[in-house]
């Protein structure tokens, strides 16, 4: 990927927060949410970010949007995000969030909500803004009369269409869709997915689609990044990751997708099912805890302790001593001539 093709560049981005300690005499613990995350999104690329709840997906989205502080560097269209350029960056990056009802002001009409970004950025006169609102409503599949309605008068799918329309008002280069269909039923969610795909194709913009569902991401996206514990553990072409997952965590995610009717897959799925049983076995966790305590007691530096080893070591049934002590490098495992397929694991051949 050449630098000229890159729209979004995330480089060594980290984020942490202080725990809410009840003991005022005890120092509050620091919790690492993102750990030096790096990846690129190309122009006109549909990029998927997947992982379980709490892995840092939404935090990363908020960092890209400038909604939270972070360490590291984020650039959009070669412009570095800072605290001082949030308004200018809003012209380039917009978001569609999980709950459309919470995202819309219940006391304002749909027309007001859609027109507001244009007013804030001083775009157009009243007549031009009104025309733009009608165009956007039509684009997302709603009649112009919806501009006079309030959010409570719309269905969940219609509200999400309005949120997508609001994200398009400033003609951004990148849209971040954070679990955009998880609050919708299946049929409505599929319509929203189709709408996102149509918008991507029509306007040639980039999308960062954040989800816990690898099936949906595979359907939509060109490339996929798999996140666990604030780290990206695998990244590559969607088809390559779906058909040839390399990281144990990615394999676990894919094992939840039903019914690929091959004997090899059934054997693999049975094996992964046993793995998941192991992960939920409390005796297994106690064994890991004891191993980690013994390992930690051999270390002197608290910071080195916290960051030692692979991020997935506590839940990986294949872990080795190397996994406990060393951090695996993020390396390209694709053969010459194939699309890059990066993974962070010592046990790729398991």
Give the termini separation. 30 Å
N-to-C order of helices and strands = EEEHEEHEHHHHEHEHEEHHHHHHEE
Mean of residue pLDDT values: 86
What structural class results from the helix and strand content? alpha/beta
Largest sheet: 8 strands, mixed
Question: Which descriptors apply to this entry?
Answer:
21% strand; 14 helices; Rossmann fold; single chain; 350 residues; 12 strands
Task: List the SSEs and their pairings.
Elements: E1 6-18, E2 30-42, E3 46-50, H1 57-65, E4 71-76, E5 79-80, H2 86-90, E6 93-96, H3 100-103, H4 110-120, H5 126-139, H6 156-168, E7 174-178, H7 186-203, E8 206-211, H8 214-220, E9 223-228, E10 231-237, H9 238-243, H10 248-255, H11 263-279, H12 282-297, H13 302-307, H14 321-325, E11 330-332, E12 341-344
Parallel strand pairs: 3-8, 3-9, 6-7, 7-8
Antiparallel strand pairs: 1-2, 1-4, 4-5, 9-10, 10-12, 11-12
Helix pairs in contact: 4-5, 6-7
Protein architecture, described:
Residues 299-305 have low confidence and may be disordered. This protein is globular. The chain has an eight-stranded mixed β-sheet, with helices on both faces. It folds into two domains: 3-19 and 27-245, 3-Layer(aba) Sandwich (Rossmann fold), CATH 3.40.50; 263-327, no CATH class. Helix 4 (110-120) packs across helix 5 (126-139) and helix 6 packs parallel to helix 7. Helices cover 40% and strands 21% of the residues. The protein starts with 5 loop residues before the first strand and ends in a 6-residue tail after the last strand. The chain contains 14 helices and twelve strands. By secondary structure, the protein is of the alpha/beta class.
């Amino acid at each position: 990927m050449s630098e000229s093709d890159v729209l979004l560049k995330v480089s060594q981005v980290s984020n942490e927060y202080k725990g809410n300690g009840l003991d005022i005499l005890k120092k509050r613990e620091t919790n690492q949410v993102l750990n030096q995350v790096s990846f690129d999104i190309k122009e006109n690329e549909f990029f998927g970010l997947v992982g379980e709840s709490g892995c840092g997906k939404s935090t990363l989205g908020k960092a890209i949007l400038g909604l939270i502080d972070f360490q590291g560097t984020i650039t959009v269209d070669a412009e570095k995000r800072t605290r001082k350029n949030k308004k200018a960056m809003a012209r380039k990056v917009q978001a569609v969030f999980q709950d459309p009802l919470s995202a819309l002001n219940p006391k304002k009409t749909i027309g007001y909500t859609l027109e507001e970004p244009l007013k804030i950025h001083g775009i157009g006169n009243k007549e031009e803004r009104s025309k733009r609102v009608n165009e956007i409503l039509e684009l997302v599949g709603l009649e112009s009369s919806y501009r006079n309605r309030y959010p409570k008068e719309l269905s969940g799918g219609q509200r999400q269409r309005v949120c997508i329309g609001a994200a398009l008002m400033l003609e951004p280069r990148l849209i971040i869709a954070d679990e955009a269909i998880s609050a919708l039923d299946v049929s409505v969610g599929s319509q929203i997915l189709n709408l996102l795909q149509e918008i991507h194709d029509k306007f040639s913009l980039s999308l960062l689609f954040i989800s816990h569902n690898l099936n949906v991401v595979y359907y939509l996206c060109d490339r996929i990044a798999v996140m666990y514990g604030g780290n990206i553990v695998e990244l590559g072409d969607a088809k390559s990751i779906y058909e040839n997952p390399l990281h144990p965590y990615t394999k676990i995610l894919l094992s939840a997708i039903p019914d690929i009717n091959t004997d090899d897959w059934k054997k693999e799925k049975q094996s992964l099912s046993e793995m998941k049983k192991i992960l939920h076995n409390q005796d297994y966790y106690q064994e890991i805890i004891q191993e980690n305590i013994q390992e930690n007691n051999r270390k002197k530096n608290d910071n080195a302790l916290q960051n030692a080893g692979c991020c997935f070591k506590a839940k990986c049934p294949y872990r080795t001593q190397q996994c406990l002590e060393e951090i695996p490098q993020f390396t390209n495992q694709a053969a010459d001539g194939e699309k890059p397929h990066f993974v962070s694991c010592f046990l790729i051949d398991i």
